[in-house]
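Re: beginner question about structure tokens

> Can someone show what the tokenized structure looks like for a real chain? I only ever see the sequence side.

Sure, here's an example I had lying around. Input first:
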Amino acid sequence: MVVHYNLREQVLNAIGSRIISGELSPGDVLPKEDTLSEQYEVSRTVIREAVKGLAARGLVESRPKVGTIIRPRDDWQMLDPSVLEWVASSSSESEFMLNLAEVRLAIEPGMAGIAARNASSEDIDKITAAYEQLEAAEGDEQAWARADLAFHASIVDACNNEFLTYIVRAIRKPLYSRRLINASLATMLGPDDVVEPYESVRDEVLSRHRAVVEAIQQRDEEAAELATDRLLKRVAGLMRNALLE
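And the corresponding structure tokens:
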């Protein structure tokens, strides 16, 4: 998907990326509007609007007689989708994906338990259908990526909690922008990585996902949390191993 940014977004992304990468450090003063206007070949109005966008995300603040200051990293709105994209762009792919896997491990098992408790019959049908798409996607990497996304999205939706939905959607946006959505258990496992009692990559991948589906179908919160925890720990473990190689 090609994304077209207007001038304000282009400048916002450019300066935001410089801050996230460390090129501009906390405590630094941004160049004056005239300087930035000349550097990015845009009007001062565009610069002003871009800086407002940075301020809204906690990256900068204006101080009288000083200028626009880069704020400490602890003040940044890290769950903002744009900030996450800048973090993704400034990190190595493996490092970013491991961090993301650990975030998912921290929140998604609980979400699966909530889904088991709150899901409507229609929600459970959607989760089941998404799992069936996984079964049908064997050998087609793009189809698998779409099905895997739909599977996890259906569980989020089944929580019927708008705050959880926002958090997860924010996390997913960088995956689209960096084409990392294929980073799933299916694409990380090789024949030599399969563990007992599973007999093949397909068997392990589908069995781990099926355990989540069945627990939600049975409205067993504890089992849903446990199955999701095991699935995501497997993903995180494979990522850690890849970083050590």
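Each token stands for a local structural state, so reading them left to right follows the chain. The chain has two domains: 7-74, 91-244.
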